Amino acid sequence: MSALPAAGSDPAGENRRPVDDIFDRLLALHPKLIDLSLERMWRLLERLGHPERRLPPVIHVAGTNGKGSTVAFMRAVLEAAGRRVHVYTSPHLVRFNERIRLAGTLVDDARLTDALARAEEANGGEPITFFEITTAAALLLFSEVPADILLLEVGLGGRLDATNVVEKPLVSVITPVSIDHVDFLGETVAEIAGEKAGILKRGVPAVLGRQPREALAVIERLAARLGAPLSIMGEQYQAYEEGGRLVVSDEAGLMDLPRPRLVGPHQIGNAGLAIEALRVADLGLPAAAFEEGMRAAQWPARLQRLGPGPLVARAPEGVDVWLDGGHNAAGGQAIAAALADLEDRVSRPLVLIVGMLGNKDADAFLTPFAGLARELIAVPVPGEHKGAAPEALAAIARAYGLDASTAPDVPAALDGLSAFPVDPPPRVLIAGSLYLAGAVLAENGSLPE
């Protein structure tokens, strides 16, 4: 979860907007970017007149990996059915506006500035984290703009996350749980699952993606105490690929759908989770909307093949450039599996360009690429982030038998590919950090819409 207002922005500040002045003030309200608690949220929401009580029906989504993709699938299906959909996600990649989608459209600067200013005034200068006060502003907007449903993604954890102020959502959704953010959520999968399960509400149905056994045990115990009916992938419902199609089945019947547009075997699970959540929500959606949603869903920087742009032009002719913001062990496994699938269909040498934050487990992220990638070029993460040293990333790659080097940035890494021509031209994956992904999208002019 990103608390920073401008991942991917230029460090010189040449593209500053009026709203950035508010961001600067809000960042100064608390000494920490992350301080998990709900007390400050409840205080501010009361002063704002409790916008969280005036929202359209909510589907609340927590988990470690796949939250954004699951939300993207649900949004695509709902919009294909003609529903007006609010969406709240984090972090953003290039501009903060990406976090707030009002009835299908990213919030504009004028409306965003107004909501942030009202939240700032109501807060009265008291300590509050950036994510908390911006979430309060988002809830204010969601309460004021008409919509049929709100897809609300947790920022970090669940139990003490700023989004966990909705008393009775339609459905709670928990994507697969794995190790990440151990400084805040716990060092074991079971501890982390306990935090994620904190979004469960009494009597509210919950839909789970495929979970590790220890995570599932924790979630099931809490759900039983709350009387929250569970629909668990692999038990109450199934999602799998068959004959190039997506099949989802539960007690309501079987759906035979187009394979999801998003790339990778892991997206079968994300799409199945999204479909089951919408079926459990019982919104009366036509079958055609599910079909169109699978074809239409988009989610930037999740195995995204970059189109033409200034950055892609730096690569030698014929090189495929892919981008993913994955940065933990489960993310590395999912990306590597997807690239292995691509390799089976169209064989090309794989070159990794990787930049990571220093608090991530680089070894666990890179392990799945052993034997799959030919080369790794380590780069720093742009901006004022505590990035892992490129030399350290290169050393880990060498331990797995990869040729490894460093470059000052992604453009230089792409330029360097010309010095070692291969036939066929390589497939390049840029990965390791959402901050890095945001900078890549900005530099290539591939702004999320």
Describe this structure in words.
This protein has 449 residues and is of the alpha/beta class. The chain folds into 2 domains: 18-296, UDP-N-acetylmuramoyl-L-alanine:D-glutamate ligase (3-Layer(aba) Sandwich); 304-444, Protein-Tyrosine Phosphatase, Chain A. It is built from 15 helices and 17 strands. The strands form 3 sheets. The chain has an 8-stranded mixed beta sheet, with helices on both faces. A 6-stranded mixed beta sheet has the order 12-13-17-14-15-16. Strand 10 (245-250) and strand 11 form a beta hairpin. The longest helix is centred in the last third of the chain and has 17 residues, at 329-345.
SSE diagram, text form:
Layout: H1 18-27, H2 39-47, E1 58-62, H3 67-80, E2 85-88, E3 100-102, E4 105-106, H4 109-123, H5 130-144, E5 149-153, E6 171-174, H6 182-185, H7 189-196, E7 206-208, H8 213-226, E8 230-232, E9 238-242, E10 245-250, E11 253-258, H9 266-281, H10 287-296, E12 304-305, E13 320-323, H11 329-345, E14 350-354, H12 362-366, E15 375-378, H13 390-399, E16 403-406, H14 410-416, E17 427-431, H15 434-444
Parallel strand pairs: 1-5, 1-6, 2-5, 6-7, 7-8, 13-17, 14-15, 14-17, 15-16
Antiparallel strand pairs: 2-3, 3-4, 9-10, 10-11, 12-13
InterPro entries: Folylpolyglutamate_synth (IPR001645), Folylpolyglutamate_synth_CS (IPR018109), Mur-like_cat_sf (IPR036565), Mur_ligase_C (IPR004101), Mur_ligase_C_dom_sf (IPR036615), Mur_ligase_cen (IPR013221)
Enzyme class: ligase
Family: Belongs to the folylpolyglutamate synthase family.
